[in-house]
Amino acid sequence: MAVTIKDVARKAGVSPSTVSRVLSNHPRISTETSQKVKAIMEQLGYHPNIMAKSLVSKTTNSICIMLPKSAEELFSNYFFMELIRGIVTQASRLGYDVLISSGANEKEEVEGVSRLLNGRRVDGVILLYSRTNDPVVDFLHENNHPFVLIGRSDQYPDILSVDTDNVQASYDATKHLISLGHERIGFVSGPPELVVSKDRLKGYMQALADAGLESHPEWIVEGEFLQESGYRAMSFFMNLPNRPTALVLIDDVVAFGILRGLHELKYNVPEDLCLVSFNNIPLSELSTPPLSSIDIGIYNLGYTASQVLIQSIKNNQDASYQKRQIIPHRLMIRESSIHSVRS
Amino acid sequence: MAVTIKDVARKAGVSPSTVSRVLSNHPRISTETSQKVKAIMEQLGYHPNIMAKSLVSKTTNSICIMLPKSAEELFSNYFFMELIRGIVTQASRLGYDVLISSGANEKEEVEGVSRLLNGRRVDGVILLYSRTNDPVVDFLHENNHPFVLIGRSDQYPDILSVDTDNVQASYDATKHLISLGHERIGFVSGPPELVVSKDRLKGYMQALADAGLESHPEWIVEGEFLQESGYRAMSFFMNLPNRPTALVLIDDVVAFGILRGLHELKYNVPEDLCLVSFNNIPLSELSTPPLSSIDIGIYNLGYTASQVLIQSIKNNQDASYQKRQIIPHRLMIRESSIHSVRS
DNA sequence: CTGAAAGCGCTTACAG
DNA sequence: CTGAAAGCGCTTACAG
Lengths: 343, 343
Hints:
Two copies of one chain form a homodimer.
Chain A: H1 5-12, H2 16-23, H3 31-44, H4 50-57, E1 62-68, H5 71-74, H6 77-93, E2 97-103, H7 106-118, E3 124-127, H8 135-142, E4 147-150, E5 161-164, H9 166-179, E6 185-189, H10 195-210, E7 220-222, H11 227-238, E8 246-249, H12 252-264, E9 274-278, E10 292-295, H13 298-314, E11 324-327, E12 330-332
Parallel strand pairs in A: 1-2, 1-3, 3-4, 4-5, 5-11, 6-7, 6-8, 8-9, 9-10
Antiparallel strand pairs in A: 10-12
Chain A binds a DNA duplex (16 and 16 nucleotides) through helix 2 and helix 4.
């Protein structure tokens, strides 16, 4: 039997209401009473029942992270863990607990989120990805639930979101290669249903256009966030008659696949092919050669998402702040892209 | 205003008790009533309030993962995410939600766990690591809370735990090198306060002893689960007058650091130094050369931990099953250790 | 500054 | 098979 507010009240010779007020640091309580009650709580080993509190206060001080099943294969574990670390750290600082949930498919995801939100178990949710036409986003938006998207929504532009400016980031990566003299630049994209794939493709195209360079449809391939995709893209590119001299890659993991393939075929990076990728995972500076990569501040994305969501929960959806937060990115130039074509 | 059991009851013309019974599939309820009530629940969009249910049933159907702050730097993100995926998947299958918590230090960790457990917010906790003299373990054990350790406890041998047989695994790795003819084998360990470091060191020592090989104190270095540690260990070893020809490494990330250092100094793997490490993260087969590594089934460790904990919660700490579960490991031999010394 | 009372949304013996 | 009642542990107007 756990000790309750009543036990404390009895022992302290006050009413349960008073104990409750001491607990929440109610201003109109005498310092004397407060101290006495606190001492007794300590002595009895009292711990407030979070569920009971939640039931009456109609707030849970918890948020939920939705981890899409598909993500397990799509993205790197590193990416998600870093995001989670950021989310949990900031949530914890603001007094919130974090629930982590996943579904085997979109239907399960909606059901899970619905159960948690409608069942009053969490106050809001963080979505770690953005697909086009996402039923989870539809559900959350329609029912007016507090949520934040790490990424961008195609359909709902004024949704709460935290994102990289992927168009700009990709523009920067491509521009960097152009400035080295490359004129034939390829792009390995991610799954086309992800908004991030679209955005990065767009930035790439724009950079080419601004530089007056041609874009060839066969220089753009779609894949997954997997080494295999990189490997396959590599062998495709290397067999092209007029192949690119540089590549922009949707993810470091894809780059690793390319690096391995190139190594097997005895090609050299950056001499035979320059590479720039995204995410700047720690191993990207350890590969041979070290990989140029766009650091998107993953931890910061998670941290900010937490912050923004909890703020919105507390303000009850008050729209007084920025709906869309952009986390700055930074191109980390390493050996994989220091070879100038002009030289 | 959320729709409650009362609303459903009123609309269905039954009592709240009956609705509650329908909800929990109580056997003594007529199919007719049940169907009618279920239809109304659907129609009204009823969702049971998890907190209210929890309050009266005194069970939360949630478990908590304690993510130690120090882990953020010590272990690879990959390792933790994989563990979490396993935990969440199995918990979700068994109808449990997963809370993820962390603390900046041991004190905060104990406080967090205490708040969650005593506050009746979670039914049990999973610890992702094992230090010697861990106050969190002390707390959990003393208060008789359901918990499972992923790893091994020095002090409490009969605690619920899921682990790799690290002594055997390390023995296997070392033995593999010995079978290739190596006689001077070094070991790069992790932080000495972690039980895993001790166990792996022990297996290494045993394999040497069994083969009648000498063990040199200077062939054993301690570090962190970081690339830097590998890098430093590498430069230490390579400057030794009578240096090892092979190394057993506590973690793949350490191996990457070594690989990088060796590459910079123009040494070759496996010709100049053979390597075998632990964890078999996906990138280990992508490095140059691909890394021999012990696969410890990380996902399986998490999955099983979830299973075991929830079972123990449901059986109310019934001791009818194995207290310590061992997840099988497997040595993945790759290029980094295929060089025979005898050849 | 403090207490009595009602109530959050559910479950579960106890009757019938 | 179903209902009325009590209660889980807390909070919060309403009084005083």
